[in-house]
Amino acid sequence: MKKSNTLENERNQLAIERTKYAEERTNLAYIRTGFSIMIAGIFFTGFFGEGIYHYIGYGIIFIGILFSLYGILSHRKSTEILRRIEEKFKKVK
Question: I need a surface site. Which of 31, 40, 75, 83 has the fewest CB within 10 A?
């Protein structure tokens, strides 16, 4: 019975680690996408001197900043949740 319990604990720990890595990949993708959108906005503002495209570029930069902030804030929130789950799991152990 003890061997089965140890195996179950090891599987749970591995599941927590997989979840952490998946969460990191997802949030890094949001941040990477935000930076790419910001670069596109900088291109719009730099390539088109004045006019409507110049202001569209500023809007695109703002959207990129929002994507990056969402990725950062989501990472903080999910890291805290995963930390609580891991602490709870260690107490049950």
Answer: 83
Angle separating helix axes 2-47 and 52-92, nearest 10 degrees: 170
pLDDT tens digit sequence for 14-61: 888 888 888 888 888 999 999 999 999 988 888 877 888 888 889 999
Domain residues for 88? Answer: 2-92
- For residue 47, what pLDDT is reported? 83
Locus of tokens 């999910």: 78
**Domains: count for the chain:** 1
What pTM was computed for the model? 0.72
Structure tokens at 79: 């890291």
| Closest-CA residue to 13 (of 87, 69, 73) | 87
Q: DSSP characters for 40-58?
A: HHHHHHHHS-SSHHHHHHH
Give Cα 30 distance to the centre of its chain. Answer: 6
Strand locations in the chain (E): none
Asked whether the beta carbons of 85 and 23 are under 8 A apart, the reply is: no
